[in-house]
Amino acid sequence: MRVDLSVNIASxxxxxxxxxxxxxxxxxxxxILKCFEFGAAGAVTKTxxxxxxxxxxxxxxxxxxxxxxxxxxxxYSFYSVDLMSEYEPERWVEEIRRIKKSTLGKESVLIxxxxxxxxxxxxxxxxxxxxxxxxxxxxxxxxxxIEKDSLMGRTAALNPKLVxxxxxxxxxxxxxxxxxxxxxxxxxxxxxAKIMVDSGADAIVSTARFRGLILDINSMKPxxxxxxxxYGGPWQLPISLGxxxxxxxxxxxxxxxxxxxxxxxxxxxxxxxxGATAVQICTSIIVGGYNIIRGMIKGVSxxxxxxxxQKIEDFRGLSLKNIIPIEHLERRKIYEIIVNYERCTGCGMxxxxxxxxxxxxxxxxxxxxxxxxxxxxxxxxxCPFKALSLERIA
Length: 394
Ligand SMILES: Cc1cc2nc3c(=O)[nH]c(=O)nc-3n(C[C@H](O)[C@H](O)[C@H](O)COP(=O)(O)O)c2cc1C
What we know:
- There is one protein chain.
- Helices cover 33% and strands 19% of the residues.
- By secondary structure, the protein is an alpha/beta fold.
- The chain folds into two domains: 7-322, Alpha-Beta Barrel (TIM Barrel); 330-392, Alpha-Beta Plaits (2-Layer Sandwich).
- The strands form six sheets. An eight-stranded parallel barrel has the order 3-4-8-9-10-11-16-17, surrounded by seven helices.
- Helix 10 (265-273) packs across helix 12 (292-307).
- It is globular, with a radius of gyration of 23 Å.
- Flavin mononucleotide (FMN) is lined by residues 21-24, 46-47, 78, 80, 82, 84, 113, 140, 142-143, 181, 208-209, 230, 232, 259-262, 281-284.
């Protein structure tokens, strides 16, 4: 069975659900064409702004915590202070034209990310990128590096009235679709999604990076560039996925582009299962290279074939009904912890971890589960040898 990966967002067709998010991998026409060459259906330009301060990059500015995990496809965090595009908006006119003139550019969706300091700048940037040939506009109301009161990035997103007004201004000036990008930091993502949609956004992106601080205790200073940084990466996936599910449950009737922490094809499937139409990916493409896009397309296609889904729509939102609200969780089940003594090495990990002090190491380092066991399941999940399991007894 051949699967159809295409999705529609605000009258535009994406040949698959993968969009490369605004960042270093989309900082020029050349890099965006590379995204398309490796199979991405869409790409968002690095954010275009007239703000010169946001266009000059601090150096060094990128850092990975747990880099070994990044190589091994595990959870790691990406900490950086990458600001907006170094190119002035007029240069982007040339870059956008170049992309849209090429065959790859014509087959793919080009989204221009913009950030204005005034409503007039938002309006001017909207006209500029649309006239240059962008297919869609994304409003940067998520950049974690904006600290002072501003009409852009995460500080603007803290003020619902501003968010609404910015979306309205951009919508009024644009005849192409407008996407609102949600900050995860300090604002209520569900409320933001509602405000954006009520103000006319044609789709929303949930979500972007947090703002964080990594401190070196020897120098007693923040590492590398010396200030706050954007903090994201695969560790944030469960948070982004939870918010995406919550936004989908609101049934806002506009497409959701899921984002935040995607590092493998399974994550794309997860976002679609909770209601996303497409996804945006940034960090894992920086770390793993453009080629991971091909593997992701293959993985999603093969999963769909195995499950018998022909179109993305066939499984979009399917898992929402499987999310049980807290008040309906079954609380009367009783389990027994079964120890597989062939696997158990008596390492004592479960003994140290058990919050109920219910596990003891008996003779010959044999693990014994006491009556205090509350069936929390933590020992099963932490055992490095998969020697423990839960069996329902009532
Ligand atoms: C180094 C770096 C630079 C970024 N630059 C931008 C940017 O210029 N504009 C923007 O809207 N988002 C920017 N982002 C945020 C990403 O587009 C994306 O929303 C965020 O990283 C979450 O996706 P991910 O978990 O796949 O990285 C940047 C992210 C990183 C890591």
